[in-house]
Amino acid sequence: MRKYLVPVGDTQQATNTLQFAIDLATDVGAEIYVVHIVGTSTRTDTMGRLSKVLVEDSEKALQAVIQNVDTKAIKVMARPFIGKAEQDIERIGKGIGADLIILSSTTAQYHADYFLGKVSGALAKYASIPVLVVPQVTTYRPFKHILFAFKSGVMKAKSVKESLQIMIERWGAKIVPLQIITPNMAEEEKVISTSLLLQAAAPKIVQSDSVLEPIRSETEANAYDLVCMIRRKRSFLEKLLEGDAVKRKDFETHLPLLILN
Structure pTM? Predict the structure, then answer.
């Protein structure tokens, strides 16, 4: 059975993200693991009393979020942790064998000017587990129309092809490739993988100095259910996520954003 890890905070957005995850899990048949991580500067025994208080507060925050969602028939497992969210979320995900980490687009400590906060931005950029970013006030609907944005058309990762095929089989998804050709791209990168061409609709190819504006324009002009990107070296995620946090003026989407490895 698939396993989805959902890190939550104590905000309304956490409730929205968890409900989205539950609705998705109901559709595909997955288990939900919910974690709330509180930070502390030390883990020594002398801090045992403080740690106990932090765990109790974390448990209360978890329950407050869970009580505000419809869990349906989904198995939801919740647990608090003390640590550093940027490091421990991926560690926990690997420990449970998570197939996907589902995150909110913003975190409590960041102003509304940010699309991705420090934690969600770092996980989107570095995590070895696929990440799904859920924007504010977004409800789940089947991923039937997917924008797959990329620069290099070379698709070597088997996991990417498998993920696309799963979405095709699950929802009968139509995958629309959007290749963004920027100045100084190598000629071999402009050639789109045959395997992708067999899986997807006819590709849209645009030339642009900006790797992000074509995505914004395409999603505003067409009714997509999901935006999909690939996490790899020298991808435009590197530019998007410089400094981890992402300002809305630099990039924002009203659609769920899936980042594959």
Answer: 0.89
